[in-house]
Design goal:
Elements lengths: L10 E7 L4 E7 L5 E5 L2 E8 L7 H4 L10 H8 L1 H8 L1
Parallel strand pairs: 1-4
Antiparallel strand pairs: 1-2, 3-4
């Protein structure tokens, strides 16, 4: 294995899934701006949009995640193409 390719400075970081408010602690080198107190201990906080507790693959529930109307933009852009295929 190559030497000195792994980052140093691992610390315990709180990751928070913003879609369902789930928190989990793990070691990480991720840069954070916020902190959170859990059981009287302050940890760096990293906010996630989706994690294994909310991802459709792990939950078995299909959920359409439409960030900034991307699906609507796509449908508007290719509406004529889809209508032509139906005919």
């Amino acid at each position: 294995m190559k030497k000195d390719i792994h980052p140093s400075g691992y610390r315990i970081v709180a990751f928070k899934d913003m879609s369902n408010e789930t928190l989990f602690l793990t070691r990480s080198t991720v840069q954070t701006r916020e902190t959170i107190e859990i059981d009287g201990v302050e940890y760096p906080l990293y906010k996630l949009e989706i994690s294994n507790t909310s991802h459709p693959f792990y939950t078995g529930k299909m959920k359409l995640v439409d960030t900034a109307g991307r699906v609507d933009k796509f449908m508007n852009r290719y509406k004529k193409h889809f209508e032509a295929k139906k005919s």
